[in-house]
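May I ask you to review the protein record following this short note?
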Amino acid sequence: MDVTDAETGAEQVRLVPWGEGDFWLLERNNSPEMTDHLGGPETPEELADRHRRYLELDSGRMYRVVLAEGGETVGSIGYWERSWQGEPVWETGWGVLPEFQGRGLAARAARAVTDAVRKAVRETGGHRTLHAFPSVDHPASNGVCRRAGFTLLGPFDFEYPKGHWITSNDWYVDLAQ
C-alpha cells in the first residue's frame, strides 16, 4: 500500500507485511528512547514472543514501513483487535526509527494502515473504529494521530504493558466514513 503527498513532495511510504526476517526491527525499536512511553525495553524473550505474535496475527496485521523510493525500512505499524470499553475495536500502533523521525513518515504510515483496515472491513466485515492510544506525555505520537485524521476522544487510564498504567489519549477513526 503506497501513500503519496504530491502537493508537498513529501516522501512516500509503503507497508510491507511483517515477515520472519523482521525481528531485527523489534530489536532496533527496543531502546530506552523508543520505549520510554511504553514501559521500557523488553527482554529478549519478550521480543521473541512479540515477533511470533506479529507473524501469527489472525485478526489484524503488522507491517514494516519502508520508503517507497529505495525500499529502506523506516519503522513498523500494524493493527489488531482488542476490547475497548466493552466493545471490539481495531487498535493501531507504530514506531519510526530515530534517524527517520520528524519527516512525517509515521503520519503517512498511519493513513496507509487506516486505508488497509477500511479495505479489510469492506471486504470481510469487522469493527467500525480504529483507535490509537498514545501517552498524553508523547506529543509526537499525538501529532501523528492529528495529522493522520484521527479524532481525539480524550484521556483515559490505560494498561500497557500489563501491570504498567499510563494516561493515554484515545484517538479514533470511524471506518465507515
